[in-house]
Amino acid sequence: MRVRVFSRVLAVTAVTALGAAGMAGAVHASAVPGTAKAALRAAPAGADPYDFNGDGYTDLALGDPYGTVGGVTTAGFVTIVYGNASGLNTAKKQVFSQASAGVPGTPESADHFGFSITSLDYDADGYADLLIGAPDEDTTDGANAGSETILWGTPSGLTGTGSDAIAEPEGAAAGHRFGFSLAAADFDGDGYTDWVDTSPGDGVFWTFKNPGAALRARKAGKSFAPTAEPKKVRGSKKKAAAAAADDAVTAFIPAVGDVNGDQKPDLVIGWQDTESPTSGFDVWDDFNEEGSSLANEVQTRVDSLAVGDFDGDGYGDVAVGGADESAGTGGHVSLYKGDADVTLSTTSAITQDTDSVPGTAVAGDRFGYSLSAGDINKDGKADLAVGVPYRSIGTLAHAGEAVVLYGSASGLTGTGSMAVSQDTAGVPGTAEAEDEFGWTVAVLNPNADGYADLIAGAPKENGTDGAVSLLLGGASGVSGTGSATFGAGTLGTSGLDAQVGVRLGRMG
């Protein structure tokens, strides 16, 4: 749409951070601490994320950014499947696009509405809301300036009624791609969920503060007017091998978890410098009225990020996927231990050749392309789902799989780990070449039984229709028993290039 996507003015606080950076590729991160010791200081007000109808069950949000809307290719849409006691109820589903009633804008080719998604109960009314990024939206600020849209939760689920959109709060311009990636958490510990949005085109990520009680006190209707603060990643670039010639970066991958053990979530954000071969991630903590601080930076290959307390010591550990590499290992996951000073000094690495990890490392498998953390077996320690979308299943190239690594007092190891695919017993469907199962993974608990479940996307199932599989967690870990697989046909989006599973709503 070529209108100004900024329907309400945002109050912008002072710029306090320096530097520039980014993160290559799409958003493949998921993060949620998995231990009672890392519990947040106070539960945020309102509904849990992704509980759009407030019934106590987590709902599944799917981003379909390459989907066709009214004949317009790559305009993009989002699809919602509601949770219930059995897992996910595919009979209760919704599809939203910029052609939906109440949603601002008009579908245009290459808008990529749904490229990023996250959830929070912004107005603390007991029904979670959905934030949707369209980084290639054309606005009056220029082509691909980008936008972010909110859909409100209600007792009946999400609605486009009263939906609102915002642009980059300050300095918006062509190519900034505001809305590229999103992550939500109560960063300042005030009981209201905040969030982060990114603009890789100018090397900035924005922390949006929820107005909280002030909003609720004045609310006569829905109001989407957060305050925002911009930050450039990499701080002062003290460790940079080479400074970027300009502020543009390739992409950002954000994740959330309590790395320093202060019972408040920290922001972990991955980057890749467009002017040098370096990449890495930063940890930002101490979000408060005076802003936030850069706690540490690590230079390493980053294709995905997740944070979880894998050893149960009360500190969130950072898991980093390095999927595309030339060393012949087929990808790896590097682990950086959390501590009070965020030293990130203790590291280890897991590959498909690690003892007890199923299979053998093969170049090009992309082990670690997607990550998600959560407590699948409810032992108080986070477990890690690892997407391996180019893994061959038998002779089926790029059929894909996901590997689950379980937390322990020693952290993540290969012990007890398992690989799942569409050939796993009990999982509906059959592995096929080029399905790319594991392109995305998310660890959520839609049936609210306390055991986190694994959701894996296979966006190339049946061409570009795509599919997702839900495998239930339990005391023995994830299992194919009782699992479900569904795709574009079930969701009513067949033939629209939905690529179901190319984006999954995630915690953090």
Helix content: under 10%
Q: Which structural category do the helix and sheet elements fall into?
A: mainly beta
Q: How many helical elements?
A: 2
Overall 3D shape: globular
Please tally the β strands and state the result. 28
- What is the straight-line distance between the termini? 29 Å
Mean pLDDT: 86
Contiguous low-pLDDT stretches (5 residues minimum) are 1-40, 235-245
Radius of gyration: 21 Å
Across the major sheet, the strand order is 3-2-1-28
Which H/E pattern describes the elements? EEEEEEEEEEHEEEEEEEEEEEEEEEEEHE
Per DSSP, what share of the residues sits in E-state strands of 2 or more residues? 25-35%
Q: How many strands, which pairing sense, and closed or not: the largest β-sheet?
A: 4 strands, antiparallel
In summary, what is this structure?
This protein is mostly beta strands. The protein has two helices and 28 strands.
If you had to describe this structure to a student in words, what would you say it looks like?
- The chain has helices at 213-218, 488-491, and strands at residues 60-64, 77-84, 87-96, 116-120, 129-134, 147-152, 159-166, 182-185, 194-199, 204-209, 227-232, 253-257, 266-272, 279-288, 291-299, 304-308, 317-322, 332-336, 347-350, 370-374, 383-388, 401-405, 418-420, 440-444, 453-458, 467-472, 479-487, 503-504.
- The chain is mainly β and 508 residues long.
- The strands form seven sheets. Strands 3-2-1-28 form a four-stranded antiparallel sheet, with no helix packed on it. A four-stranded antiparallel sheet has the order 4-5-6-7, with no helix packed on it. A four-stranded antiparallel sheet has the order 8-9-10-11, with no helix packed on it.
- A hairpin with a 2-residue loop joins strand 2 and strand 3.
- It starts with 59 loop residues before the first strand and ends with a strand.
